[in-house]
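Weekly structure sync, notes
Attendees: PL (lead), two postdocs, one rotation student
Agenda item 3: pending single-chain targets
PL asked that the sequence for the first pending target be pasted directly into the notes so everyone works from the same version. It is reproduced below exactly as submitted, 682 residues in total.
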Amino acid sequence: MPSVRIGVDTGGTFTDVVLVDEHTGTIVTTKTPSTPANPADGFMAGVHKVLELHAPSREGGLDGVSGIVHGTTVATNQLLEDRADGTAHLGFVTTEGFEFLLEIARQSVPDGYGNSYFWVKPPRIVPVHRVKTVGGRLDHLGREVRPFDEDEAVAAARWFRDHGVTTIGVCFLHSYADPVHELRMRDVLAREHPEAVVSLSSEVLREYREYERSVTTLVDAAVKPIMRRYIQNLSDRIGRPFSVMKSNGGVLSAAEVVHQPITTVLSGPAAGALGAALIAGTAGRPSVITLDGGGTSTDVAVVVEGEPSLTTEGSIGRYPCKIPMIDIVTVGAGGGSIAWISPEGTLKVGPKSAGADPGPLCYGRGGTEVTVTDAHVFLGRVPPHLLGGEIPLDVAAARAGIEALAGKLGLTPERCATGILEISAFNQSNAIRQITVKRGLDVRDFPMVAFGGSGPLLACRLIDILGLPAAVVPPNPGNVSAFGLLTVDVKNDYVRTHVSRAPAPEALAGIYAELEAEAADALDREGFADHVYARTADLRYYGQAYEVRVAAPGGALDNAWCAAVVERFHAEHEKLYGYGYRDDPRHAVEWVNLRVSGIGPITRPALARVPAQVGEASPVGTREVFYETWGRTVIYRRADLGAGAVVTGPAVVEEYGSTLPVHPGFTATVDDHGNLIVVSDR
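Predicted structure, written out during the meeting:
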């Protein structure tokens, strides 16, 4: 029986790979350079590399592999870069009289502008000349007010066909209540414009608020062509089924993902948050901040009692996406973030990144701008090579770049380099505050799990800046996201809007039954015999604009069930906002959305304990490192540290995929599972 499962997370700089042998419990990790021109090349190189490391003498390719799970940023990158092959051929069909729905949007001005007259609204995802309307109207209960106008539908389909618009999103008013008009529009498009790729709002996001539903549907349509090509290319190369990570913390087979590609837009970061949650929970820390530092950006999330926070108020770039996703804040503060001088003459860092090619100066690939990684290299805080010597670094190039930038600023090279790192640390700390303080959480209550290739590099500074109790650096921190891919269940989310202040239990039961039937069909297609259904509901006080989501119990629905959900809403509202109207009959509770998550559970890999440290930990060497001053600093190899080993700063702990600088006044202790627990001695 095949016993090997592989997780592959494709990042902008490296492709991270983790293999778990379910028979022996062995976990093997490795990395390989990403191949942006064709990510499938890096994917396959990583798979073959980890299989060779696991069993050098094995033959037969992927015969012993029982499953492959992939985290990809293909959809995200297309949206963030506004690539021409996505939105340039995108059209929109909506209800007659609503052709300016995208232009009106929510009339909100981004933070930092206030009510400024100088803010210019960015271009819509679909320009108004590629928006077509069709007659017909449903009311909010799904009752037909005006019949669907098939002649106008045919005219719209032919216009798209004649003008080369090959990707189309369809969103009719109140289609969440009844999709009948959208289904008829799809039939017309299939007949008149058969090569078009079509997304229906009633299939992408079946809930009210037409603007968010429209944009979410159009984003889904925009990424469908490139995701289909990518998944097909990868399927041909692998020659077997595989799964893809979703933004909601579940996975889905590649065959299903091509029909709902928008669900993958935060694929990699979601896997990192879940992997870190499992690692932290095993270490006895169920509530943590997760910080995933990569080459281009840093992703932060909050885990409370073992579960990452979820949201449906997320966005990808400038596009609001109301699909369920792990609540992640991303900031352009990674190892490749570029240091630059503003017109006012001040030092700035990011969000622009040198990426993987040409990369930082120290990569020696033609990079011309100083990056965060160059600052670490100049200060001696990372070794003169990456991946255990596979990628040598040009220390002289980093030094020359830092010295040149310092000269322009009138600073010493050391002050310039530490300034770059200080700015990067404050950028990361601001992201952490967004995910904690702005959510009503005290950041000082949460240890931080620092992972990713660059995640541990600023751990000590973040402890100081934020007052964190500790930082946890897992073994192989650069591969936590890939490991997270192997820890998640198959999961699909379904939603139905049902606005009512006094819902009949039988009406709610009927909707939940329909949603659970949809979930069951999907899990059956995925091959799961065991199904788990998680119910939630969105409620609000009558007159409020936004809802609070609460868990809804399983079992039969009756008046007592409804009362229990309402009580949970009162408690959650009071927890979030500091007040509630539990005993005030003037403020009725309104039900808005009903949700079901269909879950196919998997067996999670067990985290092994590490042997105890025998005697004192011995460094493998020393080198000149700058913290407050230059000094000869001890270097430890992480693989040599057993449970109970203590590293006192100043020191540097190195391993294959990452490095932890232990600043003066800090101590790093190895726990029973090999995590480095970093605390301040001050």
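Discussion points:
- Residues 210-238 form the longest helix (29 residues).
- The longest strand covers residues 589-600.
Action: rotation student to compare against the earlier draft before next sync.
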